[in-house]
User: Fold these one by one.
Assistant:
Number 1:
Amino acid sequence: MKTLFNRRYHIQALIGRGATSAVYRALDLLNGETVALKWVDIASQTAAPDDGGDLRDSLLNLAREFRILASLRHPHIVSVYDYGIDDGSPFFTMELLEDAAPLHAARFGQRPGAQAALLIQLLEATAYLHRRGVVHRDLKPANVLVSRDGAVKVLDFGLSAAVTRTGGRVGTMGYMAPEVLSKAEATPQSDLYSIGVMAYELATGRLPFNPFDIVGILRRAPDIAPLADHPLQLVIQRLLLKQPEDRYATADEAIRAIRLVAGLPDQQDAVQRESFLQGAAFVGRDAEMAVITRAIGEATAGAARFILIGGESGVGKSRLVDEAAAQALVSGMTALRGDIGSAGGTPFEVWRPIVRRLLLSVPVDNAQASVLRYLVPDIAVLIGRSVPGGAAPSDEAEQRRLVNVIVALIQRAEFPILLILEDLHWARQSLLPLRRLLNRASEQRHLLVIATYRDDAGRDLPAMLAPMMQMKLERLDDDALAALVQSMIGSGAPMDRIGPLIRQETEGNTFFVVEVVRALAEAAGDLSQIGQQPLPARVLTGGMERILQQRIARVPAENHALTRFAAVAGRIIDRALLGEYFGAARVNDWLFQCEDAAVLVFRDEQWRFSHDQLREAVIRDIPTDQLSALHGQVAAALEAAHSGDEDYSEMLLVHWHQAGDIKNTVRYLERTAERMLDITAEYQRMQRLIERVAPLLSRNEASAAILARLKARTAWRLGDETAALKHAEEGLRAAQRAGDTLNTAELLNMLGNTYFGMGHLAEAEVHHRESLALFRSLGSQRQIAALLNNLGNIELHQGRIDQALQLYEECYAINVALENFRGIAMVYNNIGGLYQVKRDFDAARAAHQRGLDMYREIGDQRGMAASLSSLGKLCRALGDTNGSRAYFEQSLELYRQIGNQAGMNRTLANLAHVLIDQGDGDEALRMLVRLLATVNPTRSIPAATLALLGFARRFLAEGQTEPAARLASVVLAVETMTPDNYLELGEVLHGLADAGAAIPAFEGDGRAALASTAQTLVAQFSG
């Protein structure tokens, strides 16, 4: 017998064995819990071993049944946790029922009232199964267990049919209905007969017929004498009638009959009603599932497929991916799932459960384990050895290593994988491994990724994840809505009356449909009674908001404060955080109260709000002044629960901002900016965060200056030099008014960088020298080194090579002393440019390559893009156009990935010149037109002049010397010329000289002429 199933379940002991299956006690290695694992001997139930067709068919049938079992959730049905097929051995895991006894052993001899209560529980479970289209087929005391506290648990539902050949009998002698003995198909009434046998056995202590008295079971009435004076006599008699149509029509009808004779109120239990609502059928997504099913087939065959599903909150995205996961498991894939709890969640959290599961199957070395320990703190338990490390990634290099290890773990898995990534509209660094997988799609095998997002909150995701197949989930149409409602209420529901009301109230939003049916059921007392009485014009005054608030109110009043605190903290419950504020014991009680009220669910080993609509409804009910205070309390508790953990910086920023705390908002905004601008290159996300906190931080000079500096830095990283200049000037004035020397120095440096990028070298030098003086007075060595580098760039661009080299060497020495590797790499790249100006191409190549290698080592994508661009220029100067094009294309892709528009503009212009070199002037022209149409020439002088020189070269190639000469005149009139453009300018000037063409004298404003010329070229060549 196997000792390890699915690389996850370790067999500990045999619990019981039957003719076709065995049940084992097993340890779940992923979470340390003990479960029951049932293994089914599929081969013994099929034809001869050499008949592979029957075996495959039975295996497929069984897999389909497992999928149904995993979707069933009911208080009186044993929960199936996981299922699969391991080396041809089908199995599933379920909750382990300790000290539970079979039905007849547990309750024979008890008073009729207790027996009635027991049978009602059994019938409620059976009604749930029948409503889901499942006939048990083998109801007997051994499959109906009773716990110490009297709770019924039904197990082994529906399985025997999946492993039995066509025409075979299903069930256990003595409990099988007459029609099943006659080889008719089992029906819901067949299950009711089996319950009648058990009811007879409960009441009398024996079976109504000898199990092998086939004639008696088929033809004779049972002996009812032992049932004399028992209140359930007539109910049991009807359950045991020979013809299925003579028995009760449904399990619900049998329940009402028992309640009537036992004197119990005829009203559906809230827990029972909830089980029907939560088990609503999957409907209306045939087209979407066809696409997903095809992708599953392609992935299992060896391909890699990526699907991005968008839609409004409550439309059914999670239900769709649930179905996809079941389909994937049936197809032999391993489904791994992660989601993001709320806005400002911790980095990479979506990957934590995925990595934990993979660690059970994919070996890692000590270095990889050390990197992953940050993400999986209990990794030592999972891999069985001690692991050092565990700190959060502190720079780009460490973050890059983490991304690489996550991706490598997925790639090295020796089994097909379905990755489900939910709620990516809240994603931050969590997108990085996904983007890496997309960029390497051709290297992936046996992989399907399905990601979901709210399209009202993640509008930029489709563009960011453009290679993924896009799928928009719409609301349910009338037919699908009717099918969904009938799966909850029953096929006899009067949809002509109920349908228009539900359509009016919900407009086909799946979540709202379930909530409206819940409200109608509570008013009617029973799901099956909906529509039997007059319906209201509206479900409730106040609409959906009132319905949600009524559900929330089911949580005991003494814990409403805890519910509100948790809702503010996020959708996924952080037990450490709540325990810090309320105490662990109270939190544990609250979790189960919320589960009973259907406010929280436990899924994928985490407690969470059952839907974000509920969490948002909790928050909407909090008065504004209390909400601000609550955000502050959550922030303080977060700091206490996760002290020193930088991963929570953005989350803390969000909460302190909502609390109106300027000091702490500034503190965490700067921490978040350091990460997003210098490590993760999340420029657009940083821009949105700044916009969000701007009204609060604009209230005083000091915080306004810091806000303006971060606005300028972000705009500069995005290549928007106009905005960077504006924000830096505003911030400088505010910092000077506030007497903030440090921030003044930072803003002066920011202005210098911006002016330099715009080609205004004189202004750049003035601001950099002022900033350097202030930083020298403050003794800030890192900033001093950066400014020496910046001044070296200015000297180089003005042709003063010796002065530039001296400044670079000073910068290099400081960075070496500080072990500032990013600064060292930057100096190498700049010195490479210096050697190129000196035409020492070997030294230039060595310096650029050294810089590129260092940037790669630390994971600085912006630095890598700059070094690749420098190598592209070097190759072009040497006449290696193929090498030049390859470097520029790599650089352009990196700039696109990080969203640096200025870098994209310069690289695009350089790439156009390479295309001209290679004779593809038409494509170069289209590229230059697109470039000039998107930039402001007077704000992006290097890129604009480079574009004009490209047009001039094209004109020269066509023999049009006059327009080429005019363009050269405009470029020369621009007061700033940089070494970036020397090569191209020289080519144009030599071409004009060879053609004997004179360059016309230029009078006027060169920058204004640059702008008007660019506009004219775009108009002339567009289209």
Note: Residues 52-71 form the longest helix (20 residues).
Number 2:
Amino acid sequence: MPPRFARWLLDRALPHDVRGDTIRGDLLEEFRDRGAWWYRRHALSIVVRSGRFRRGRGREEKPSMVIESIWNDLKYASRSYAKAPSFTLAVVATLALGIGASTAIFSMVDGILLQPLPLHDPDRLIYINEISPSGDRMTVSWPNFLDWVQRARTVESIADSREEPFTLTGVERARRIRGRRVTAGFLTVLGVHPALGRDLARDADRPNAAGEALVGDAFWRTELDADPHAVGRTLILDNVVYSVVGVLPPEFVYIRPYDVFASMGPVSGTAQLTERGNHSGFYAVGRLKPGVTVDAADREFKAIAESLEREYPRTNAGVSARAERLADRVVADIRVTLLVLFGAVGFLLLIACLNVANLLIARGAARQHELAVRAALGGGRLRLTLQLLVESTLISVVGGALGAAVAFWLLRALIAVAPDGTPRVEAVRLDAEALLFALASAAICGLLFGLFPAFQASGVHGQHALVRARAGGASAGSHRLRRALMVVETALAIVLLTGAGLTMRTLQELTRLDTGFRIDHLLTMRVMLAGEQWTEARRRNFVNDVGERVRAVPGVTKAALAFSLPIDGSQWNSVFIAADKPAPVRAETPSAAFSPVGVGYFDTLGMRVVRGRVFEGRDTEKAPLVVIINESLARRVWPGEDAVGKRLKQGWFDSPTEWREVVGVVGDVKFEGLTAETPMQVYLPLPQQPIRSVAVIVRTAAEPAAVTHAIEDVVRGIDKDLPLYSVRTMDEMLANGARRRATPRARARRAAGSVDGGAGHGRRPRRVARALRVDRESPVPRRPHRPRDVRRGHRDAARRGDDCVLRPRLARGARRSDAGVESGMNRSCDVLFWIRPSAAPAARASAKARAHLEIH
């Protein structure tokens, strides 16, 4: 109660003789005591309400106000990015490339490795093969498989199959189709039901049973015109008639798409399959019984293999078996490559985030004055951080959207260059999961590259921030964070860039390797002589006839025929023994690649003859049996001796094969690819070993493509139902194998270079502008501890163009880049174990030069 009002009340309410100074004094003292507390409480409440209002945390703030605030931040961010197009373009391009590459590789990993097989209950499917005495994986012997069917108890059903291309004849133009030879019940094991017709009959595996075929949906639509009555029609495959008994559903894929699945009956009685020691390319697949584990099945098949070894010691000595999940076996050869590639693009995405974070920190330093004004007007740190996070999220979403488009383009390119036979590549697509991955990547990137710069830039405080912003300086913490980001970013980029450079160098070195033969102007193609009408005598005549006609084609200088081709690998590997050497232990019997070749083979390829002679016209089927070996075999079997005149035979001492005399030794050639060790090789004359799969090798005077059609006409002139396939030059065989192995990794690493280089170009103008700008609005940036006279001197020197300002800045940047280069090169040398020690200093110097060029 105010004193004046109290005095007026006392004068009116109390009698005149009672009024006095004593009462008024007591009341005044009481008013002062209580009033002081009331003023303090009232002032404190005012302060609290004011603080809540300034920080936007008042109880009266509603969700609609938060949404409106974020919407306003989005509009402001859009306008600010539109005003800085070069900065926006650099950030969006960096994010689009990083997110796009990551999404594309994720789609590959998801489609090939993560997605379950498109089969019924795929976790119960197992893949079974045999193991050689040396521990190598090998295919399943047909008699051994029949014993598995009778003795296995851990599987509900089991089937055998092998990939087998067929020649489709009886149509307008004969052609090769992708097929698979399967046993009855193959679809039952996989849990697949035909869309039309039925499965193979139970007795379809019986020797000489009528041929039955299941056709794929694509083949049914293209070759059979999607005929709903296609069941019952006939196909001529390798000159054998097969009856179509079923059409497979469109979603069915086993390992890779096939046109035809043919029954075993036409081949199950052949000597090649009935011999227990022959492993003719078959692999078994089984379905486990409920509750049975893969390990239990593996133990059972190993026990069966041990039992068969005791029963058939001549053919099964040391032979074991292995069972594993079908899903694991299908992708076993590509799993490591994909995971390494996914890790590489993870580095790429991290580099993109670091680049963008560096750009945002630089932009935040330029916005110090704006943020300081906001802070002075009451904007709290949380409010400013939220605004900057909204800005970073907006640009990350835009980058993610463009990244999805980049992923679509890149994924198509990766599928196009995927090596032939890549499993499950048809399941790779940019689906909803991939788009969710891109969205998640964009959100994570927005937090990663936006959080630290946001806190760094929002950590300003009123008047102090205004003073610092007016001086144009950035905080010491901002400098330290940018320096750290630069070192880490350079180190990560160097790892990928070094890998890319070494990959390209590897490709160059591979093409320069001494292959042991001339690869220029060399054309190769294959033809299949399948069917009962192609007797041994007719095949011999075909070889002689084709060789003479092809040599007569204009533009052809030399020609020969063979079974296997260099680089392409062997299609016939077998053990052998030497007549003058003691019998080795069966498990240690040497193995060689056997290849029947025609007259002129070594001359056509340009191979070196070390000793003896090459095959001649006298080496016919009636002449003494002879062979030619390579240097590797001669050194191993007859070290220090002349191998010419020695004798060897395929198989063991009691094998039905005959002894052959070595008449020549030729130089080694790259046979199993460019990087594999050259195997021991045995060459046999074609007339003494008729074959069905014939490779035609042609040396041309001009470009090989000019004579391809003429050679096709020559072959079809002999038999119109003989299709030529795998037509390619030796240069293409060399380049495609190496390039396709390296292309995904090289593309990821080149993308890393693009991300690092693009963001670097985005940073350089900002660094230069900040270092050289001397106008009144944006003076030379300074460190907080530098005296004013030093800053003034630097500004004057910058106006004159003196090096005293530029040299220290460039030196500091060079030191930071060198630190990143050293760290990145150390990691590169650890990972890239094939790098020669002499190449490391050169790679390190090159990386430093590039980093210094970026700084300058």
Note: The first strand starts at residue 125 and ends at 131.
Number 3:
Amino acid sequence: MFPLLLLVVMVTCNAQHPQGRCDEVQTVRLFSPCTSCAIVQSTSCPRDSRLVTKATESTNCRYKVEIGGKVKMVPGCSHTCEKKVMKPRCCPDTWGPLCVPCPTWNGRMCNWHGTCVDGMTGNGTCVCEAGFSGFACQECKNKNTYGEHCDSQCKCVHGQCNNGPSGDGECYCQPPYTGPRCDQVSTSCKACSAYSYCKQSGGAEACECLPGFKKVGHTCTGDMCSRDVCDQNADCTNLDGGHYQCRCKVGYEGNGRVCVPLNPCASNHGDCPFNSTLCVYTAPGRSHCVCRHGFEGSTPEMGCTLKSACRQNTCHRTARCQTGMDGLPRCTCGAQEIGDGRRCYGNILDRLLELNRDGPQKGNLTGAIGCLLTLSKHGPFTAFIPVLRYPLNGVSESFLCKNHLVLQQNVLKDLQGKDFWTLGLEGLRFRNNEKFLFKKDPYTMYSVIQSDIAASNGIIHIISGPITNLQPPTSDSEQIAKQTVGEILVNDPKYKSFQLIWDNSGISFNLRGPGPFTVFVPTNSALDKFSHNTEYMQDQARHKLHTLLRHHVTTGSMASVEELAATDSFQSEANDRIYINIRQDGRLEFDEAGVHLEAGDIVAANGIIHVIDGVLVPPSILPIMPHRCDVTENRIMLGFCKSCDHVNETHCPANSIQLEGSPLGCAYLSIPDNVSTKGCTQLCNITKTRSDCCKGFYGNDCKPCVGGFQHPCYDKGQCVDGIHGNGSCICEPEYTGLACHICTDEKKYGENCDLDCRCVHGVCDHKRNSSGLCKPGSCQSGFSGDMCEMKITECSEYQTETCHYLADCVQNVTGQPACVCRAGYEGDGSPACLSISALDTRGEDAIET
């Protein structure tokens, strides 16, 4: 159940271990069960292990929970624990599960001329050094050598050499030969019996039995078993002709030269029942069955039964106790619950009912219990639940609910100092003091008064009060809901760019039809940035434009933001999939391009609209523009030169084609004279393709020049294009800047830089697309206004409040002082000025304080 990472600490070998065993003490790193980070501190390390650190670890930790009928793998946390265990290990020079000794010869492991494949997974084979052989490296590979290193040559002519690492090279002469090399004939040895040799000693010769034979009367009888040719756990039998047979004793197995104890447990678990018993080795060829830990039974050979490890208070009343196969109790939870190892936790709605029924928040959450479907079937969420004893009146429950929920779950420490997005697509910012505010209203602060309350589909934080300072849907939303998607796109300027592209594309898809549709509408600014693509498709690839538009529509359902968050992907009308990712800050993004959801759940009569900050491009239309224009080049060259008699044998180089026509004269060096000789050759045509970009594209990736490939540098300069180009603009004299978008004359503006700037006491904004006003913040001291034409005066004498710090006090056209917001801001100048750019992006950071 727990993943293990083993770290070796020490190795011990002492008399307490079985013979041949040098068990190893190891530190095992393991983890507590993965669960919600809100309850990980309540979890315990596995039995007999200790907590390494109090910090939680969430890397690659995910737990499984069922939310709304779907099984999800949710990021979580777990403890890191350590446990010391004894790992069975063989001592050096022993092998196998029983750690039996490696083969020896004369008490020397592998005769000291080899390496044993030892260890519990080894097979006890002696891997011999070069020149040695035998099961224990006790023989010389070359049978005609002898000596410790098998490097001495035997010199016997008519006899048997005492060879091998333990041999001395003595010659056992075949009768009637004698002498040190058995190359002399002796009359004394003519009558020697079989299996004898002629031995010379003190000038006399006599018949002696060969090694492994003994004399019985006048004959030599085989006695090879006297030479310890078999394993000590084998029986040796002498056979005729100097042969012998080794047979392992009962309880051992092997070839007789090597015999190892027979371990019945190694085969079919010693015939013990697998799930409930262990097989225990007792002696060679003998074993018995015992019950596993947590099991019991009088006849283990027939199987054991699991003993219940559950007691009355083993688990919390919310959990069910079960005894695991390891004999330990487990507190288990339902598929729609999570646990900390002792108790279980239900969904957010269940937890709110529980918190309101008992504990420090008893009765304080009555008014906050709502949004039944969302809080019980969707998620996971970070839920900000307000202290609210009575329900609020006159506020949409759905609107209120969405602004109290953030997709993804976060404990309080992970919220501090970060920005998040609610399910209602409102931006909020956490301070480092357990307080947060909404970007649309930075003056109202909310406090977390109880944090990190776990639920199966999220984490609950109790806050000081309900979030009511955000603007609910407009009063005309009911009127909008009566219109079709197509009508809404026409009537609302926020969708102007998308509606124009749709209408001008000639697509047959009708968004005023019965539906239902789910439509993703890119913002006007997103489509402006994408305009070079849509303009090309409109003129040159209308079919791609139709596919692009269909990729922003799904039919058959009206998928809300909550429903989008509950799925990983969906199929568009372009038959391509759109993939959804939920960032840790709660924001939805689509596809790998990271297109974000800006506004959602705009309900129409025949569908629902979601606004996104980018364009969803289906893979099937890539590349959108013909950015690659590879060049094919042909080059004529001569083939190989040969004698004209063999011109038909000549051939062209690889990747070339021989051209028709008469052979041409050439010269080649003749061999071996190395003299220049007249010859013949053929003409060859080599075709090569060179990578390059189309006009208006540059770089290795062939990216479009600034302004688009059809109007590079906005037609005010020349783009350094091509595969080796850098995309920079060489501007015409009247223009400058990276995109030739600035007038060279700092007092001019306009498309052709031929209009006079209107800035009076400041620095002119001399870009081609400007209005000829002053650059923000450039007014000279004492002047204000878009054209720095208004003189600043003191307002405090005439008004009860001074101007906002982003406003100036100026004389208006009637000569009266007034507060005017500075360039880039809108408002009455007192008490506040609002950022125009922030207003264009849903009011984020709109109010400057």
Note: Residues 1-15, 838-849 have pLDDT under 50 and may be disordered.
Number 4:
Amino acid sequence: MLTIHSITRNSVSYKFFIFVALEFLPIQVAFGQSKNPYAISGIVMDSVSKKSIELASVSVYRLADNSLITGTITNAKGQFTINNLNQGEFLLKSSFVGYKSHTTKIEILDASVTLDPILLSSSSLILKEIQVTGKQSEKQVTIEKTKINVAQNLSAVTGNLTEVLKSMSSITIDAENNIYLRESRNILILVDGKPTTVASLNSIPASGVESVEIITNPDAKYDAEGTGGIINVVMKRQGSSGMSAMATLNVGINNRVNGGLNLNLRKGIWDVGLNYNGKFEKAGITSSLDRQIFSSGVFIAQDIRSTQLTPTHAAAMNITARPSPKTSISLGVKTMFVDLFNTQIISGTLVHETFPETSFNRRNEITFSRRVIESTLSYKRVLQKNKQEISADASLSRTHGSRPAEYFIDDRLLQKSFGGGAPTNITVQVDHYKTLFRSGKIESGLKAFSRSNSFNYDFYDLDTITAYWIRNSSFSNDLEHKEFIYSAYAMYSDSLFKKLFYKVGARFEYHTSELIQRSINETIAADYLFPFPYLLIKRNISKAQSIAFTINRRVTRPTYPQLNPFINVIDQMTYETGNRNLVSEMLDKAELNHTWIKEKFQTRTNLYYSTTKNFITQVTLPSSSSELFITYINGGRLNKVGADLDATVKIKRVFILNPGFSVFYARSTGTYNSIDLSLNNLAWTGNLKATYKPDQKTDIQIFLNYNSPVALPQFNLSEIYYADIAIKRSFLKNRVILSLSLTDMFNTRKWILHSDNAVFNLNNSSKSDTRVLWFGLTYNINSFKSMNGQKLEGGETDSELIKLGN
């Protein structure tokens, strides 16, 4: 048994856990009674979306002479409290970058004052349009995350979240809908902030999603998993008071349909939400794979035609009870049925220096079937309004998957396999926050997380003489993988000099894992403790500009397929195997953000530098008999420096241009056998979204995207470019919305990969049905408005670089 200890755990972890545990005790410390006993408290919100605004500046002026007395900055919930005030008349001024300032006259007599919500109206061009139409903006960007509102994204008509995400210049989508964030695929996927066993974002119908958050600089509250960042999918939840509903139907030409029905009821202390969302797609994929093995003098050419059927059904129920203004209890249950029926027709030739040319024809019938059940239970209690709150959450996500397959050679069934597993995530966590001093806040939490999977895979060859099926032990396996992660975090945030805000904290995670190979009775175990520091500093330069700086650390732990040492058959000439000796990769990153928002022009710029130790990468090796073996290894170090730029320009009130640009330079080191993992690469992505609004009910949009060639360890990826066009119009006071969309209208989106090294030469191309015409219809009943409930008072397989239409 192998046991790895990264850090001595005794002193550091014990003291930190005791500190966080004590934070949950209702201890009150008296610093003496203030001579000025009164306070002003309230919450700052967006006037359209009614969502809280974090880091808004709130200042108190004396009414008599307009002199500044004190000020603070709102917390993550948009709340503020200003203490140590005398009786008298005051002006309270609230402001935030991109919003019009708001001034309120206040008189303190013989009691502290609690204000009604302060609603800020946006001075930015996008939100200004929203105020007229009553819609949310499509995208909000901060240094920590970017939020995309799905309903306002015209690509949502496709039903696929990857189509929604591609509007971000920092995101690349490959031919199999895998997501790369700043060219990293090591991304943590969350649903409503909870870990999920759903392997692909496209398994979640877009019609049931409220928004998608791309979190590139998560603070210490978030799990440290995911060196590329976090993508959090926020599902639609309870709507406005009374009964409300929304129905959506989208049809793609040809053989595509998606839609959903959302029902919500809010009455008294109860909020009840029910929804069903589904989709069906039939897609064709054409691929080719040519390779030449220099040592054996073999050249193999393959052409693959794949037909994929993907029916998906998802249903959910959410119930929230608020027995008092300070308490809420929520229960959510969701189930998903996700299937993929894949038929591959493979034809090819094999050329050898000393043997005659031979040809082959194969057919693979592969089915992926997943049954998902997810449940969450949440409790929240406001201990002291705007000052102290505690919450507890428990969640379960379990997927029962199966993968039967049949392999035909010259139309004769000669091989078959059956695999199945049940990845399971269980989470229990407690979070707490409390205000300190005049404007400070301390946040802390404890979390226990388990991730497990028990997997069986049996592969059979037909004995053509006896007609019996013989189990092939080389390709069959039975494996069990267990992980436990215990974590604690603490953060403190406060403001200095009225315009400067800071947040500092750390997260500690203790991780244990076991990889159990039952067939050979072998267990590989590892455990370690890692600290993850976090720092954010933000300063408002003016009403229009702000700058921010963050430092954080992230980790990517090897996934189950990357560790699985047994051989997985992709097709008869391509195999995948894991590497049980993989270790976690660790990333340290610093990022600088600048935001500038004017009436007709906005820019949001991020500059970042990251260094990754023991980066995990995919490599391809030829066997002695000319098959390809795909596996995973640790490289040495990967350094990146990059920039993201997002801008919005308004021209004559009816035209809006939204260009995006992302560029990075990467340099890596490392070798594996004879494979050189070093690279020295500059790559960039640019896109442009142009919107024409002839009136308040109509949007006409064109989207252009270009990804430059990218150098990867062992491979070079060619450029990717495409264009989309969409039209949307609302009727009957926004109760009915019709849309028309054409994706990849020039049919140029494809995946081309090349490798030329001392061992082999390889060329791979893949083209799927990306040009699709979509018709969409949405009908709102009783002004359906999604929100996350009322405020209280206070993977089974890892995807390959080589695309074969799998």
Note: Residues 10-23 form the longest helix (14 residues).
